[in-house]
Specification:
11 helices, Arc Repressor Mutant, subunit A, WH_DNA-bd_sf, 241 residues, Four Helix Bundle (Hemerythrin (Met), subunit A), 4% strand, three-stranded antiparallel beta sheet, mainly alpha
Length: 241
């Protein structure tokens, strides 16, 4: 049975009001808290608490929550309130399928076209991943992992690609964080990234594509296992049960 709890708004980063509209900043703050599981699936989102923590009125919070609902990250339940959406294996499978199509096309192009300057940036990211593995810094490694894939998409020259990839795989991003505490998973991910990096360095398009396919192919079996281990984080999908 799924549990319900209130979000701890004290964990919500305060906004700086430096860039973007107030609604955009509130939306981004809440979104990051959901994607990084600071606000777990099923948790109640109380607008008054968010307003107090961020020092804003109800209007930008309400607009931000409406955007999150459109993205599938929260559920607005009439006469019940707002809660962080549960993970859905159906949506995760779709996100993995779409993300893999984008990633394979990306790595094939980058293996052919990568510049010296781009290669240096990717190499620095790999060194950072190695340091984070040594420190056993799971959250830090996750950020470096995201940066690794983001750099590859940036190197294609298609400016909207990274944003589109994130949009189609929001549920995947949430679920992947749950895998980081798995013993040995960070080291395995680094080895998979190293295989991709080495293939790109050799400008071997086929090997780079194969390495990316192997890397992404690990995800669904692990997430399916996770669903059985932590069913309270997932909603029941009719096609899965």
């Amino acid at each position: 049975m799924n549990t319900r709890q209130d979000i701890d708004t004290n964990l919500l980063p305060k906004i700086t009001r430096a860039e973007g509209s107030l609604t955009q900043q509130v939306h981004q703050s809440l979104k990051q808290a959901i994607l990084t599981l600071i606000f777990p699936p099923g948790a109640n989102v109380r607008k008054a608490s968010v307003c107090e923590r961020l020092g804003v009125s109800r209007a930008p919070v309400a607009e931000a929550i409406a955007r999150l609902a459109a993205e599938g990250l929260v559920d607005v339940v009439p006469q019940s309130g707002t809660r962080v959406s549960y993970l859905s294996m159906e949506q995760i499978r779709e996100g993995v399928f779409l993300r893999e199509a984008l990633e394979l096309a990306t790595v094939a192009k980058v293996a052919c076209d990568i510049t010296v300057a781009q290669h240096k940036r990717l190499s620095r990211n790999m060194r950072l991943q190695e340091l984070l593995l040594e420190d056993q810094d799971g959250p830090g490694f996750y950020q470096a992992d995201e940066e690794f894939h983001g750099l590859l998409m940036e190197f294609t020259g298609y400016r909207r690609l990274a944003d589109f990839a994130q949009t189609v795989s929001l549920q995947v991003s949430r679920a992947r964080i749950l895998l980081l505490p798995t013993p040995g998973r960070i080291a395995e991910t680094l080895a998979e990234h190293r295989a991709i990096f080495d293939a790109i360095s050799a400008r071997d398009e086929q090997r780079a594509s194969d390495a990316m396919h192997a890397h992404l192919g690990q995800l669904m079996p692990r997430l399916k296992q996770l669903e059985h281990q932590k069913p309270h984080l997932f909603k029941i999908d009719p096609y899965d049960h």
